[in-house]
Amino acid sequence: APIPSFRAILPLPDNLISQIAAGEVVERPSAVVKELLENALDAGANQITVRLEQGGIKRISITDNGRGIAPEQLPLALARHATSKITSLYDLENVATLGFRGEALASIASVSQMTFTSRTAEAPHASEIDGSTLVVTPSSGAQGSTVNVQDLYFNTPARRKFLKSDQTEYGHCAEVVRRIALSRPDVAFSLTHNGKTVDHWMVTESAKRSASILGTEFAEARLALDESAGPLRLHGFVGLPTASKARGDAQYFYVNGRFVRDKVLMHAVRAAYQDVLHGDRFPSYVLALDLDPALVDVNVHPSKIEVRFRDSRSIHQFIYHAVNRALALTSATSFGTTP
Ligand code: ADP
Ligand code: MG
C-alpha cells in the first residue's frame, strides 16, 4: 500500500501509552508477580500470599498486610506516573524503595482484568477499584491490599501469543517468588498454584530461609560472609566448591535489597572462585551488597534488574576480595590447596 503523504501528529491515548509501557514492564506473568511483590514490600507488609492459576496467565492474586491505600487515593495508584515513593530528582538519586516509576499498576491494568482492594488502618472498611472503569466501591477485608490480575493480555492478543506453556510461566513466577523470599527472611510468604499450596515460608533468619529455598545441599556446604569497607557492606552465603552446579541457576545477588543480574558483580564473584572451582562449574551464592543509594543508579531499565555503579572498579575489588578471603579460609582448612 502506498505510504500516505500526510498524517497528522496526535497525542497517544492514555490507555495505549500504558499498553506500550506494559511491553517493557510486564512482559510475562512473572513480571507482574515481581511488581506486585515489590509493592507489597514497599508497603511494609510482613505477610504475603501469592495465588496463581494456570501459570499466572489466568490469574495472579497477591494479598499483603501492608499499610494499604486510602479509598480516595486508589484512582491515583492506578494512574500512570503517579507514585508515593519519590517527589524529586534528589529522592530518585537516593531511592530506598523497590518501586519509584509509578507505572506498574497502570501498565498491568491496561493489559488485564484487574481489581485492587485495599484497607488502611484508619479506614472503617476496605475499598475496591476496578482497573478498567476506575470506579471505587466499598468492599470487605483486613488491613492491607489484594491485587487480583485476571486474563493477562486478554486485550493484546499479539502479546499473549508470546506466552509459553502454563508450566513454563509458572516456573518463572515461582523463581521470582523465591528470589524475593530469599532477600526478605523477615517476611512470611506463601505460594499456591491452581489451588494447591506449593511453598510456605515463615518469618525466620537468613540462614534458615536460604537453606529452605536452596536446599540442604547448599545449606551444608556454604560459608557465611559479612564484610564492610567504608560505605559498602557485603553479606550472605557463598557455596563451597561441593555446592557448585553445572548451571548457574543458584546465583542470587542483591543490591540494596533488589535482585540484580550485573556483569561487574558476577565477574567479581567468578574471579574470586577461580582457584577453587573448575572452569565448567558455577558457584552457588546468595549475596547482598548494601551501599549508599547515591552510589548506584537503579534507573537503568524499566524492570530494574540492571544497575549502574558510580565506581564499578572499587565495587569489583571489594567483592572479589571479600569472597576470595572467605573461600581462602576454607581452602586452607578443608581443601589443602594452600602451600
Ligand atoms: P511505584 O511502585 O513505582 O510507586 P506502582 O504503579 O507499582 O508504582 O504503584 C503506585 C502506587 O500505589 C505506589 O506508589 C503506592 O503508593 C501504591 N501501592 C501499590 N501497591 C500497593 C500495596 N500493595 N500496598 C500499598 N500501596 C500500594
Ligand atoms: Mg511498584
Detailed description of the structure:
The chain is of the alpha+beta class and 339 residues long. It folds into 2 domains: 14-201, Histidine kinase-like ATPase, C-terminal domain (Heat Shock Protein 90); 214-333, Ribosomal Protein S5, domain 2, CATH 3.30.230. It is 33% helix and 24% strand. The protein has helices spanning 14-25, 29-42, 74-77, 89-93, 104-110, 157-160, 166-183, 206-214, 216-219, 263-273, 312-335, and strands at 47-53, 59-64, 113-119, 126-130, 136-139, 144-150, 188-193, 196-201, 222-229, 232-239, 251-255, 258-259, 285-291, 296-297, 308-309. The strands form 3 sheets. The protein has an 8-stranded mixed β-sheet, covered by helices on one side. Strands 9-10-13-11-12 form a 5-stranded mixed β-sheet, with helices on both faces. The chain has a two-stranded antiparallel sheet with strand order 14-15. Magnesium ion (MG) binds at residues 35, 38-39, 99, 104.
